[in-house]
Design brief:
mainly alpha; 5 helices; two-stranded antiparallel sheet; elongated; single chain; 125 residues
């Protein structure tokens, strides 16, 4: 819904599909980082995934980034917090960057790393 009226009109539908793909790939990444499958990221899982997320941080910097993600201060990062973090940091998922909503022009290129590649690297870390 690009105009905020809570309905997806015909002219907005082409934007819906890339958004669905983006969030599906973001979930795939999140789920692969979530080693214990509790649908929450703890700090240890986040630290193990840093290289897969193309982030080179020391312990203090990692703790600060984790705190930025954990907006409800629950000690773990939920998927919605993860998505907000991706948007704020303008992190690409399959080459696309979502800050509000994507457009059909934001589709990834064929040479962009996929979320599956990122998730696989996180699992190996």
């Amino acid at each position: 819904d690009g105009d905020g009226d809570a309905w997806v009109e015909k002219n907005e539908f082409p934007h819906l599909l890339p958004n669905l793909l983006y969030f599906c790939r973001a979930w795939e990444c999140f789920d692969n980082i979530d080693a214990d499958d509790d649908r929450r990221l703890d700090f240890e899982e986040f630290k193990k995934a840093l290289s897969a997320l193309n982030m080179s941080l020391n312990e203090e910097e990692a703790a600060a980034e984790f705190k930025l993600m954990d907006t409800n201060e629950g000690g773990v990062v939920l998927f919605d917090e993860f998505c907000v973090y991706l948007a704020k940091k303008k992190c690409p998922v399959d080459g696309a960057i979502l800050t509000e909503y994507t457009t059909s022009d934001d589709r990834p290129t064929n040479d962009s790393p996929t979320a599956a590649d990122t998730a696989e690297a996180a699992t190996a870390a």
